[in-house]
Amino acid sequence: MEVLDRASEFDADPSIASGRHEGTLLGTLFFEPSTRTKMSFTAAIKRLGGDVVDMGSVESSSVTKGESLADTVRVVEGYADALVVRHPSEGSARMASEFVDVPLINAGDGAGQHPTQTLLDLYTIRENAGLEDLTIGIMGDLKYGRTVHSLAYALTKFGAQQHFVSPESLKLPRNVRYDLHEAGADIREHTELADVLPSLDVLYVTRIQAERFPEESEYREVAGEYQIDAETLEVAKDHCRVLHPLPRVDEIAYDVDDTDHARYFEQAHNGVPVRMALLDLVLGGGA
Amino acid sequence: MPDEREMRVSKIESGTVIDHIPGGQALNVLAILGIHGETGEVVSVGMNVPSDRLGRKDVVKVEGRELSQGEVDVLSLIAPAATINIIRDFDVVDKHRVSRPTEIFGVFECPNHNCISTEDEPVESHFEVLDDGVRCVYCDTIIREDLTAHILV
């Protein structure tokens, strides 16, 4: 909540962030493509008065010479005051953090977690629907979708009623279900959005990726059932907000953009104040 | 010439006897302990020995090496009833049970092939012990069934 409150302050009055971390360098190491996460971290540190030292693409780095992640972060630690790491392997950020003394932020680890996305998701939900007594539907690729895993953990802390909607083959992974049960989460699993859509305050949509299916025809058949358009949302509550971590392909039709339900671009914009708040806290921004 | 029964229970001069291992698990016990032919210890293995308590049990005797509690506790995951006897000059000088550890390093391989611990990084595998399995601390993958299939070789 401290991050969200700080983000609200920065959002309301960006001038309070100016020069707050003058001279601070953020090391960004993205071993996978990124638009929103990388650019918003860059914007965030610059708005705080700092700057970025970026590893660049994997192809242009020593990773192509076989350098391990552990060695890479130990080297870059010497160039920066905090690190942001995205890597295709699950557990990569956790492992990398064991090798450095500076703060290291997980910007996505394979199909594992994406905690900073969750912070901006929570922020957007709080701004639009509130985090109390929330009924949320989370739809799409729940198995490999890292944003979903982090979000489900976080929403559990707020006692949200969580409806997970996906094809059977892309249900939540066992370890996530185990944790949610252990934490006493209120979760239900569905294969049809229609079963729950009218009850939702928030519908969080994620992309189903073709490469998760052995046959493209199978993907097309399944993916089609988890796409929404303005007509789909006619049975939703007026105040139901639609979120998506983006990028979308065709799971949310463009006609939804013009409805009052759509909040995914606002959600993406929130990446900057939320990451500013997170960096401010890990860099010792104080109260 | 000793008879077969005498050979099974023959004493060792010094080292560790691991008793009350479930029948058929002796080789897995050795694998977990990292004891194999190339490590040099003299090892005796009794498999499916009649036992009042377990029906059939395995016994492992490792000569010249006293295994610490920390080394043997990991056995609790596949042999919860195992007893550890430390032998010196043919006498049992210490006898204790295995207890369930909270963490396990370098014993199991994470079954998630996309886990960073399975890649060429300078880290040991690291699992947290749950009530009914173990969980990789890096990628959170849980192993509940057939733990022995995931022992690092």
Short description:
Chain A has ten helices and nine strands. Chain B has two domains: 94 residues, 2-Layer Sandwich (Alpha-Beta Plaits); 48 residues, Aspartate carbamoyltransferase regulatory subunit, C-terminal domain (SH3 type barrels, Roll), CATH 2.30.30.20. Chain B is built from three helices and nine strands.
Short key terms for the protein model shown above:
A: 287 residues; alpha/beta; 2 domains; four-stranded parallel β-sheet; 10 helices; 34% helix; globular; B: 153 residues; mainly beta; Alpha-Beta Plaits; SH3 type barrels; five-stranded antiparallel β-sheet; 3 helices; 9 strands; disordered N terminus
Q: Can you walk through the features of this model?
A:
The complex is a heterodimer of chains A (287) and B (153). Chain A has 287 residues and is α/β, with parallel strands linked by helices. Helix content of chain A is 34%, strand content 15%. Chain A is built from ten helices and nine strands. In chain A, helix 4 links the parallel strand 3 and strand 4. Chain B has 153 residues and is mainly β. Chain B folds into two domains: 94 residues, Aspartate carbamoyltransferase regulatory subunit, N-terminal domain (Alpha-Beta Plaits, 2-Layer Sandwich); 48 residues, SH3 type barrels, CATH 2.30.30. Helix content of chain B is 12%, strand content 35%. Chain B is built from three helices and nine strands. In chain B, a hairpin with a 2-residue loop joins strand 4 and strand 5. The longest helix of chain B is centred in the first third of the chain and has 8 residues. Classes of the chains: A alpha/beta (287), B mainly beta (153). At the A-B interface, helix 4 and helix 7 of A face loops of B.
